[in-house]
Design a protein that fits this description.
It is built from 18 helices and 14 strands. The protein has 556 residues and is α/β, with parallel strands linked by helices. The chain binds one RNA strand of 76 nucleotides through helix 2, helix 6, strand 9, helix 12 and strand 14. Keywords: Aminoacyl-tRNA synthetase, ATP-binding, Cytoplasm, Ligase, Nucleotide-binding, Protein biosynthesis.
Length: 556
Amino acid sequence: MTPAELSQSLFDLVNQVSERRRDADAPVLGLTVADVVLDRPRNRDHGDWASSIALKIAKPLGASPRDIAAELAAGLEALPDVASVEVAGPGFINIRLEAAAAGALAQTIVEKADAYGTGTLYAGIKINLEFVSANPTGPIHMGGVRWAAVGDSLARVLQAEGASVTREYYFNDHGSQIDRFARSVLASYLGEPTPDDGYGGAYIGDIAATVVAQYDGDIAALPRDEQQEVFRSIGVDLMFTEIKEKLHGFGVDFDVYFHEDSLHESGAVTRAIDRLRELGHIFEADGAIWLRTTTFGDDRDRVIIRSNGEPAYISGDLGYYLDKRERGFDQNLIMLGADHHGYIGRMMAMCQAFGDEPGVNLQILIGQMVNLLKDGEPVRMSKRAGTIVTLDDLVDAVGVDAGRYSLVRSSSDSQLDIDLDLLGKHTNENPVFYVQYAHARTSAVARNAAASGVDRSAFTPELLVHDSESALLGVLQEYPRIVAQAAELREPHRIARYIEEVAGYYHRWYDNCRVIPLGEEPVTDLHRTRLWLNDATGQVIRNGLGLLGVAAPERM
RNA sequence: GCCCCCGUAGCUCAGUGGAUAGAGCAGCGGCCUUCUAAUCCGCUUGUCGUAGGUUCGAUUCCUACCGGGGGCACCA
């Protein structure tokens, strides 16, 4: 019996009880199945599943919660897979399943394999997920790396729920930051000091040297403005290529790298502005062209074409958003750092100005910043000052798996502290090893089982009665719900926390229950059935790590 | 001044209205002739920032305040 079936049964019982109890003239409760949720109690004494529904409906029915609970309990007890039901505390209903019914899950998981945990929440939905989008003015730093890890994992989670996801990187190659970058590289080449508003990192010199080596001609012979253009175009390409390669090495690949420049060149920006003008949301003032975002809740109107004729940054967003919509994306997700949260108002206003629904067609996910600490003291990261910690630094220190895992296991709402010293030393503190070790252990057990003549030729789930077994089964059952929740809330860290929990239950089970008989003891159906549970656990950990983009090693 | 995020064990952090608030790390003490000891077991620590409110029930929702971080351009 699946949790869904059990909660449907409970829902039916709730309806029966409320029909029987309510006065003829009283309003119906209007509950749906979703209101009748089953919890997996933390305390195993409270059964395999628990419901607080009696507490919720007691008042409208004018009855005591315990009386309602008792009636529901009687109905549940009659179900075939339910072993026992009790009413506890103020009116909780604690349900215990037959061991066979609970244990059947092990076989289900093994048979579903990679598909276990996937759902259909977003079946048929096209989602565009834009993340990282760091400017190509320097190596990708820790802030961007966090979104690379979280965004890629979120994409995987959404795909697991049936969505068609396009990972997209918006490449800002149009604005004045690029000019600063070009001037900085040029200055380095000429041996001049870094411009006041330029970038001063050591990588600037490297880029200058590489550009000189790659340029087919004599840069020194060019006039200064042409020199700058050479350093701009080749330098940006170099950065762009490097960023792509580094992200690839980190396991993050984008489907689309979208160039801001192309929006201006293709006329997409002009088209978007024309469209908004037709809709009556454009006005002119002080020599500039504005979008009246205040109509849609923004705290001020926004300039989209400056009085000098240059498009403001947001104009690219107008064209870009329209382009995404024309490409058929129902949901457009954009991940931004907390330093960009002020964009939400204007972006949502823009979405609404186009006639779309903010929060549905456009969703902006804000993630908090990464703080770097050294000797317990904060280190400020700045591309300008050249004090940056890059993707490479992270991977060199701890590797891809531990790096991704440490970035994705915290809520994006929390600022992340990363201690540069700890990063290099105490790698065992990373819970990823705890989880990976559990997975390696399931593989080792499976290998040894094969060598010892334990196979999966029998499956008798009613034998899985040890406390550590029902606890493990209980947590394995949660997986599909966790994936759905992570997708809905856009919070992939839930997957990490969950598999840590699975690893814990598995290790404790391993300690208590043998899959392979000791010494000369015969192989029994209990051993064979436990092998199913072992393999099921490995499968769930593997699936979970897969959603995080972290390897599931068979040996450690 | 306004907006967003955070405040939970010594540290880093989970916990989108439920029962006795959890994990990892750190500390102390136990288990290897037994499927991998990167595991497991035991001990120890909490005004869930403060004060109100809603609720049968609040770490969770609402309000105010305190503390930390970030943001409020014809920059991108």
